[in-house]
Amino acid sequence: MSQTTTPSRYTITSALPYTNGPIHIGHLAGVYVPADIYVRYLRLKGHDVAFVCGSDEHGVAISMKAKKEGVTPKEIIDKYHNIIKKSFADFGISFDNYSRTSAEVHHETASDFFKKLYEKGDFIEEETEQLYDEEAQQFLADRFVVGTCPKCGHEEAYGDQCENCGSSLNATDLINPKSTITGGVPILKKTKHWFLPLDRYEDFLRKWILEGHKADWKPNVYGQCKSWIDEGLKPRAVTRDLDWGIPVPVEGGEGKVLYVWFDAPIGYISSTKEWAEREGKDWKPYWMNQDTKLVHFIGKDNIVFHCIIFPSMLKAHGDFILPENVPANEFLNLEGNKLSTSKNWAVWLHEYLEEFPDMQDVLRYALTANAPETKDNDFTWKDFQARNNNELVAIFGNFVNRVAVLTHKYYDGIVPSPYTFEAVDKETLEALKGYPEILSNSLDRYRFREGSQELMNLARLGNKYLADAEPWKLIKTDEERVKTIMYVALQIATGLAVLSEPFLPFTSEKLKGILNVKSSGVETDWNNLGAQETLLPAGHQINPSELLFRKIEDAEIQQQLDKLEATKKTNASATNSTDSMEKEVTPQKDTITFDDFSKLDMRVGTIIEAEKMPKADKLLVLKVDTGLDTRTIVSGIAESFNPEDIVGKKVTVLVNLAPRKLRGVESEGMILMTENKDGKIVFLNPDEDGVGNGEVIS
RNA sequence: GGUUACAUAGCUCAGUUGGUUAGAGCACCUGACUCAUAAUCAGGGGGUCAUAGGUUCGAGUCCUUUUGUAGCCA
């Protein structure tokens, strides 16, 4: 079913980022950069495009993270939605609309979608028994249950998987299951759910994918679909017992929400609606007209949802078109290890943007030139540096600079009139004309890595032309010839300015500024570039040269490597100290100023007396010599220390804390404590010899 | 465990339907040049195409084995 005619419009989606963390280079290389290149290319060719995305804000993981951190899901999604949205915008991902699944338009769209399928009888209803936490009054998603693994005996296995032996489990299989919310023992309780019977769509999928897209879908995508279909598709639950998400909008759906994978892809549609509303357009053609080409950019972990489940949903609904292609990318690693949000093993986009200001295109280029299109790839900072210094600076930037500098040197920045074109000039101009098609060839087949290299080849063509023609020598003997040479070189530079736009949008803009193309009077777009004789006319004034790229020094790379090394160390010590018990690192608090800090008066003190507070399990009444005075401090450490053991101990005391009465005893300060790996409270003690009472801590 | 994909020079990758001495960029070595961000241009060395077998006149390309990596499923 590959389309042979040119589509009237394009709907391009890129995977909705999950709002449990910021965007990192893996997301960029796999999804957003290729999607953005494709979209910019389509726009340059004058196509009607809707490029939509948004934050995916539902699901168990966010609900769980919220409970763990003691905040509401909304606080989490707002935080990450804002970070993500801003970093995309700053990075130049040119979404027509970036929405979020908590938006009203999405709730409505997803609800309606569900209702329509419900009314058509496209769901199966089934009652199953699930674990239920009576105290919290809610059903427990697999991740909310821990217990002993029935296979290996590991005591901290999750309801869906044992991280010790790696086997997947059902929550009901766990021995001694416990709710992670209350710690209580869950009971089995009946619950009703709605299932999408994928088996009904088997014939359709077989025909559509296995016959229709055998040739044009990537091997991995096609192969995975084939294995799913061949194994026999089963009904899949599209609702969950959860309090975070889109409420099931039909009778009996109280306390239940749509499965996040049911609502998320509908987010593409909602986002399109939001965009159309704002732009005063009709969203429907973008999703319902057969002459629209729909393409989903995703990572390989999402293949089944975008190729099997979502298309089945769309088919069931009946009004929608299906994706023409799903160019799923493989994964990117970082310095030899898997990227991990929870382990902080990543190059975070929002941090990159701060650490390498105005260098968006460098990261775009490095990620494109080394994109994980056919297999997992490794991002290394050394490669990043090499791509920048050897290619962007040395080949692309340098060519442009030498052309601009020579033009100013010889002609005060005015494009010279060519004299007679020799064979080499004609060949070079002819080669230049061929580039739009060369690049189209790559981009139409989603080969962005190849495309980026072809673009670089155009700059190479320019460098070679100059090296062969040697205008700097001829200027002394043959001025007419030099005019022709510089004219040709300027045409190539202009070609680069136009053709680099999808790959290097910021650079393209800058280069167009140098060449002053907007006032040249020549229409230079992708389509007529190949047909046009002149891209930058003789007599046209260009602006002074500006460097397009700067070199990246070894020290900058080392800094990034050190940062990763520090992460490794943090992770290693975290694993050691939490060997058996999962211990969450408390998130960093809001920043304070130095003035805030200096308000704290902390001193070295010595405990001179200690006794238990009557009728209190946790409290000790201490007399502490602070160097200033001897004062009474009540401390909640009785469970960890015997009073007699701590007399004479040197401790850190916050002395200017407002006094407070605890159990009738006034406490005049606070002793600083921390916790060791076993959860035991320990003193933060100034144990260096010769440190006396009353010394200020700063 | 099942399944899908991947495995080609030191590194990153091309290699369409099997067809002459396996290609490119980077790195390395040599030479040329100086307009240019010590950039550029030319030339060179370097691979028994993961492994073992098979089909074929002929296989990096098709089939099977083993190993490794990754995704998905159980």
Relevant terms:
698 residues, four-stranded parallel sheet, single chain, 42% helix, 21 helices, RNA-binding, 17% strand, alpha+beta
Compile the SSE list and pairings.
Layout: E1 9-14, H1 25-44, E2 49-55, H2 60-69, H3 73-91, E3 97-100, H4 104-119, E4 124-133, E5 138-139, E6 145-148, E7 157-158, E8 175-179, E9 187-197, H5 202-211, H6 219-231, E10 235-237, E11 239-240, E12 257-258, H7 260-279, H8 284-288, E13 292-297, H9 303-317, E14 332-334, E15 337-338, H10 349-355, H11 360-369, E16 377-379, H12 381-411, H13 423-444, H14 448-469, H15 471-474, H16 479-499, H17 505-515, H18 526-529, H19 554-577, H20 594-598, E17 602-612, E18 620-625, E19 630-635, H21 643-646, E20 650-654, E21 660-662, E22 665-667, E23 670-671, E24 673-675, E25 681-683, E26 696-697
Parallel strand pairs: 1-2, 1-13, 2-3, 14-16
Antiparallel strand pairs: 4-5, 4-9, 6-7, 6-8, 9-10, 11-12, 14-15, 17-18, 17-20, 17-26, 18-19, 20-23, 21-22, 24-25
This protein binds one RNA strand of 74 nucleotides through helix 6, helix 12, helix 14 and helix 15.
Walkthrough of the structure:
The protein is α+β, with helices and mostly antiparallel strands and 698 residues long. It is 42% helix and 17% strand. It contains 21 helices and 26 strands. The strands form 8 sheets. Strands 17, 18, 19, 20, 23 and 26 form a 6-stranded antiparallel beta sheet that branches. A 4-stranded parallel beta sheet has the order 3-2-1-13, with helices on both faces. A hairpin with a 2-residue loop joins strand 21 and strand 22. Helix 7 crosses helix 9 and helix 12 packs across helix 16. The radius of gyration is 32 Å and the shape is flat. The N and C termini lie far apart (71 Å). About 2% of the residues have low confidence. The structure holds one RNA strand of 74 nucleotides.
